[in-house]
Specification:
Blueprint: H1 3-30, H2 32-39, H3 44-49, H4 51-77, H5 83-105, H6 109-131
Helix pairs in contact: 1-2, 1-4, 1-5, 1-6, 4-5, 5-6
Length: 133
């Protein structure tokens, strides 16, 4: 890989994390009952009862999306050295959240739709450091 690709790979790796978690945040904060019944298979009554928990999950996903946005803006705001720690932290958070989601609901979609963007962010953050060796 060329030096320019390696320089911007950590930032690009945050794009899937930002998009995925912004969508999750929207669905959980503003469309919980519909999402819970269609995606998680909850009854309407259970979805209504769990709406507060769903919104809380949504705010967590909003924080992940905001963290990814921060990591993407870091080269201009704070310097390029900030991207790797931010991508590692928020990417790892997403991977761990996907494992908890899978363990809770036993749906592999959590691992793919939530964990994979997090894993991409972490790998993209560390690949330039590994390639420099």
């Amino acid at each position: 890989m060329g030096p320019m690709v390696l320089k911007w790979l950590p930032v690009a790796g945050l794009v899937p994390l930002l998009i995925a978690h912004a969508v999750f945040a929207y669905k959980e904060i503003f469309d919980w009952e519909n999402s819970a019944t269609k995606i998680l298979g909850m009854s309407d009554a259970d979805a209504r009862a769990a709406a507060g928990v769903g919104r809380n999950q949504g705010y967590s996903n909003a924080a992940l999306a905001a963290g990814a946005a921060w990591g993407m803006a870091a080269p201009w705001l704070q310097g390029p050295e900030w991207v790797r720690p931010l991508a590692t932290f928020f990417g790892t958070w997403a991977v761990l959240a996907s494992v908890v989601g899978y363990a809770t609901f036993e749906k592999t979609g959590f691992l793919v739709k939530q964990g994979l963007p997090g894993l991409i962010a972490v790998i993209a953050a560390w690949l330039p450091a590994i390639a420099d060796r």
